[in-house]
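Re: export button greyed out
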Amino acid sequence: MSPRRIPSRPGELIDRSTTVSFTWNGRAFTGHQGDTIASALAAAGVEIFSRSMKYHRRRGIFSANHWDPNLSVQVGDEPNVRAGSRRLLEGMQVSAQNVWPSLRFDLGTANQLVGRFLSAGFYYKTFMRPQFLWHSLYQRILRKFAPGGRIHWNTSTHGAYDKRYAHPDVLIAGGGPAGMAAALSAAEAGATVMLVEQEPELGGHLRWGANDDLEVLADLRSAVEASPGIEVLVDSTVSGRYDHNWIAINQRSHPLAPERLIKARAGSLVVAPGLIERPYVFAGNDTPGVMLAGAVRRLTNLWAVRPGDRAVVLTASSEGDSAVADLESAGVEIVEVLDARSGADIVKVDGRGRVRKVHLGDGRTLAADLVVTATGWTAPTSLLNMAGDRPVYDPVAARYFPHALPDNVLATGGITGDGSIAELLAHGRETGELAAARALRIRHDVLTTTARSTSPKGPRPETVPDDRIPLRRVPHPECYRSSTHGLVDFSEDISSKDLMQAASEGFDSIELMKRYTTVTMGPSQGKLETVNAASVLAEARQVDMADVGTTVWRPPFSPISLGALAGRIFEPVRRSALQDWHEANGAVNLLAGQWVRPDRYGDPMAEALNVRNNVGLIDVTPLGKLDLRGPDVPKLLELVYVNRWQKLKVGRVRYGAMVGEDGVVSDDGVTGRLAKDHYLMTTTSSGAGAVWEMLEDWLQTYRSDWEVHVTPVTGGLTSINVAGPRSRDLLERLVGGVDLSADAFPYFSVRTGTVAGVADCIIWRIGFTGELSYELHVPSGHALHVWESLLATGSDLGAAPFGVEAQRILRLEKGHYIVGQDTDGLSKAPTAGLAGLVKLDKEDTVGLPELRAAFDRTDLPVLVGLQPDDPTVVPEEACQIVAGDSNEILGRVTSSRMSPTLGRSICLAQVDPKLAAAGTSVTVKLVDGSRITATVQEHHAHLDPEGERQRV
Amino acid sequence: MSEIDFRGPVDSVALSAPDGAITLADESSCTKVLVRGARKTAAGIHLKVTYGRSRRRKDGVLVCGSRPGEWTLLAEPGRSGDVAESIPSEGFVSIVDITHGRAMLRISGRDAVGALAKVCNVDLADDMTPDGAVFSGSVAKVTCDLVRDDRDGERSYLISCERSFGRYLFSAVADACVEFGVDMPPGLSIH
Amino acid sequence: MILVPCPNCGPRNSSDLRNTGEVVPRPDAATASLSEWRSYLYLRDNPAGWVTETWYCRSGCRTYFTIERNTATNEVRGLERT
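Workaround output, generated via the alternate export path:
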């Protein structure tokens, strides 16, 4: 079953006493706990894991870790799983992606025959024209051949994604020797540390090292485990670094969620990702059996898998030498070791499903099934780029190094230089100390400036100079490409020849070349490809590597699922104290902003008629309500409303409209004076927050000498509008302490009393519906009692609830506009029907110069009442008003309904001023393109323009 | 009025994890009185605590410095009247009973910090947010006032928000507690 | 997500606050000409560099305060309550 599994290795991760069963393309396999999907399959002798993106070439294990470009597989309903790092679990159903009909026989292979059409920029060249083929043909072809797994729409095995915040002093990206050493020294210095490692266990390259490496690793691990100040996250990736060390971490192995996004604010960020091995470019370099030295070291030492039988090794560094030793100990025959440092080279590999022959630079040909290359390193500087650094190429070491970092970002480990394990640990330790010192200074400052915190202990920590001894840079030959062309980007199937062609077509800047060819844009995110791409471009342009530059690495560091980015979805919902009752009594809900509220209980037309004929109750709690106290409230009201407020008497209520500093209507509502220095302001439901912030701005910024306290009380007072000719009859049965008679409690007045035994209810007499009506503001903890008492007591009067839709009908019959629906950004108060309300003779009012100027404007749209001449036609809201048979727009319908009271359609509309006179006939273009005529009315109100019904 | 029950925004009974490391309970019926005034007023001198801190008065009232020039007084249900009357009202001072206007919950236990870290971006470390700390922040996208009010040496936070958000907030915080062993009652799910 | 130093709450995520923009003095509404008023409404320097701007501590202490911020680097210096 496991023909390639070798005897026990000292550092192996597998537990041989266990058996894990899984399937691969429907066939049963077994592995051990600790295996990756790839290692279990490789142990069983599987050599082909995927087909390449464009040419559908067979692909095998290449780097045997998170970055392996050939190991994306489907696991159950989860696509694009990285089989090189994903641990095997019992029952996994694993299958190959991007193959049709099967991995073994894939029709897409035919693409190889037409390879020249799929060369650089082929998307742009092929799918440009004719445009009409885009929908019918190109899109379908592209989808068919698109790489990646299948998304299941009704996925059941994934829980909700998760999110969490964290505030470590020091965050360390990379759990290799340097990162672990940094974590330990930072924690010793008193910092809280978060240590993040991409692979499922700490250790980095120590894991597949020799026995002394494993001893060091064991010591480091137990020290980290014993340190309470270090939180370790494995199988997690530091995905991005943003301003002020705001850091995104994608945590994959979490029991509750498939992935979890951690948003961390770190004092210091230590970047210690190690180095990534660089592929060598030569003909056939993607043939299964061509592997990086690190891949064979991991396969043999971590998973006890013999990666081949006869190996040729091309090496330019000690990594290749170590790989040779590992292979020999695993029983692999070493056919030949080629030392690139002395000019040896591989020019071509033959073989389709597996390497068969290796052609050398000296003309010889060797038989082998495994080709191992160790030709250099890529420094994954992504997080440094995100911190503003532009790493610099060093031709001596043949890789990029950090250049200039901000104080709160430090780098350590292989990314900064070379050294023995002891040297790496020493650098890591010093870096951790420095990171902690800087972070603790920041923490001290935060504690000093934050009201809720404890005072910092001790004096402010001194600035610590960066006197770390830099790691050496070991010379390394610049090994990028052989004399032949081969693949640069394994994920995207892009060869050095494609890049040369792109350069010759003029795409010879690295950023342009990237976008033209898509090189570095695949799932490996450039980690394997970027430096080789730059080297090919340097060759094409015949310049030095350093002059080519690199593409800018941006988040994410490695691909992240959209679910993780979405995280837990928080959508706050507001409910009035009566919402449970509404839902229990048949309400059809409406989501208005954050408020969920009843749109209707039954037929909204009947609900509206009941208000006109009897009495209706509506829950209007979402109305914004602000409690205003202090001697200077009248001044504030004068300032923020367009009308006058100085003379409002106690017990009276007034309508007010607000504008912005640009004179455009922004909000409206009524405000009542409850006592000498006590007012209650209402705002629109959606505007409540903005009005509150605006009042605070005035009181803090320009009028800080005024004595006014503003307290929002929207949810604390449940608002019930009792409307209809029998509303007074109803309230007289329940209200205590208030004389409700027309003389004692006239229109636009406010009283405070008890309702159904509930004290401190504010009652004002106003009328949005146009009927005699009272608005009750009831302490919310007792609101349900009041509501139920009103309905029970008024049953003989016809008392019944009505919803938002009925209210909209009623208010439109009455011609009341809604800010934001019947007004827009051109609705300056004087032209929006408020000319009579605006008072210009004030010392100051918001938007005063604009209000003044608007009175002289004759070009602004005017809000009018409008009735279609055919009373059965209700034009949809937002229908255009046009000039005759032309499409010249002269206005639009802003509100429209069928009026149950009048038995005809009614509208509000914004029209060109030349159409605003009463009796003007206008043309409305309906949604279906037909046109109707309608007549401008004298008033906004279609019903009772004199207001006789509400003043009884 | 005493015969009319106070109804809060949350029906749920208290939730807790089997190991007792986290409990969540609605406390919306608690008395909440808001006092506004300058620190130099009699009220300010009487209430003493500055923004960010709290203290428990001898009569059991928790006085929270909830904003610069603003205090929130928390007490057991039904004490609005006597709490309001206990504040000297000379000068420009406003006293508003916000019992009906704010939902409030208490989350306690060893894992409370872990649960809050899933819904709130405020650093709850002991030095940043010690016992008695008063602060405001977004909890599951709702602006909330929070007080760290440890009970018997165990972590405990009072979280209050605008009443209409109360049901949602309780659900969202309960959902964050699921990771720590709390069973989500059906009907509370936010997903 | 930058950190904004609130004078009361300490550094906070910018999502906890509202940026109300560059500080532009408000002219006297009673005497300002329309063009002066419109400069106040619409004209901003918008430099790639230091700007004095107002923030509102919306989720925190509800204080309006000003800071100097370098729009190119997000470095912040000096702050005061308005």
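Chain C touches chain A through 31 residues (CB under 8 Å). The button fix ships in the next patch.
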